[in-house]
Specification:
This protein is of the alpha+beta class. The chain is built from eight helices and 18 strands. Helix content is 24%, strand content 29%. The mean pLDDT is 94.
Length: 376
């Protein structure tokens, strides 16, 4: 690998991203942050009506464009009702278990002010409820927010200007250990965003020549299933998504390298592009695994379902405890950075892909079936 990213910039950017609340639908602030980073690098970009970003790194040719996508939004919660006891009932934003919300410190964003609070189970005191605290169901209906303000009834909440529909963001409690482990909520996908910004900085500062235009896509509704559908245009022939890959029993992902996801619940990723990424890992000595994910969708799913004919593949950062108390390692981020840098400098996968539709000439082959005759 002839180029490498600025690791200190990667770390600082990740911490900055983690400190910006951005549950799906409440992403304006993080859009401005990323936009400012791109402006500082002198990278041109456009912003959609709702805030998705499409930046462009110019290549030697402007056909066979490629894209690298990450998402800015995270999981979170929303005020569901103002309770008569002066606390807040909440509903999840995105798909995640209420068991990972218990005890979290949060910020509630009203129209005029931000308030601090804590998510607690309805039976939060062992001194009061005894063993009953251990028998509560795992359910969002079993949680409430205790606000750090004098609130004894729903009227008090209304006086503070808190309303149904106000967003709730959980503290990420980010920590990077001396051994390189990164613990935080929402490494999915802020670690991916930090990787992409670090790669962009490397390409610009080192004046790396790219073979084709490379678009950087920052989406804002991945956690609720919308993904890249609103920012993936027809000029993009292939797209690589950077997201998390769960490290768990039955999976093959690793926190120390990256994972090339071959299939998720939306179906298989592109055969040729996925294998190209694996080849780049082997050529550049990048630690990688392949995996198949069961309960998982990414930015590409909504775009493909909407009719996009773009080849897509997924690079997964190894994340333990995904959608809960997440952990990865700096080695996974640097491995992803190395692979994305190698991919951005690689030739187009197929020259035929410059056209939306064409003849059979130049269309690739997959390995043919060879029947082995077994003699009896």
């Amino acid at each position: 690998m002839s180029f490498s990213i600025d690791k200190e910039y990667l770390r600082k950017t990740l911490i900055s991203l983690l400190n910006i609340p951005s549950p799906s639908g409440y992403t304006d602030q993080i859009v401005h942050f990323v936009g400012n980073e791109l402006q500082a690098m002198d990278i041109p970009f456009d912003v959609t009506r709702r805030g998705a970003i499409r930046a462009n790194l110019k290549g030697q040719q402007n056909t066979l464009d490629r894209a690298i996508a990450v998402h800015l939004d995270t999981l979170g919660a929303m005020v569901k009702s103002l309770k008569i006891n002066g606390r807040l009932a909440i509903a999840p934003v995105g798909t995640w278990s209420s068991r990972f919300a218990e005890g979290a410190r949060v910020t509630i964003f009203s129209a005029k002010n931000a308030y601090r609070g804590t998510i607690l189970p309805l039976k939060a005191s062992g001194h009061t409820f005894g063993d009953a605290v251990d028998s509560q169901p795992v359910s969002w209906d079993q949680l409430e927010i205790r606000i750090d303000a004098h609130c004894n009834n729903s009227g008090d909440l209304e006086k503070y200007g808190i309303e149904i529909g106000d967003y709730v963001a959980l503290d990420t409690t980010a920590e990077i250990t001396s051994s390189g482990f990164i613990n935080a909520r929402y490494l999915d996908d802020k670690a991916g965003v930090a990787v992409l910004l670090a790669v962009a900085k490397c390409i610009v500062s080192r004046e790396i020549v790219l073979p084709v235009d490379c678009h950087l896509l920052f989406t804002i509704f991945e956690e609720v299933g919308i993904g890249a559908s609103g920012v993936l245009f027809g000029d993009i022939a292939e797209m690589v998504v950077i997201d998390s890959a769960p490290v768990a029993p039955g999976q093959h992902s690793t926190e120390l390298g990256i994972t090339i996801v071959m299939m998720d619940q939306a179906g298989p990723f592109d055969y040729h592009l996925s294998r190209k990424l694996a080849g780049l890992c082997r050529e550049n000595g990048i630690l990688f695994q392949k995996d198949v994910l069961k309960f998982y969708r990414s930015d590409s799913a909504s775009a493909i379902e909407a009719g996009s004919d773009t080849r897509s593949a997924l690079i997964g950062l190894g994340v333990d405890g995904s959608h809960g108390y997440e952990r990865t390692h700096i080695n996974s981020l640097t491995a992803a950075s190395d692979l994305v840098l190698a991919y951005a400098q690689s030739p187009p996968t197929f020259s035929r892909d410059k056209d939306d539709i064409s003849s059979l000439e130049g269309f690739p082959h997959q390995p043919e079936r060879k029947v082995i005759q077994i003699k009896t």
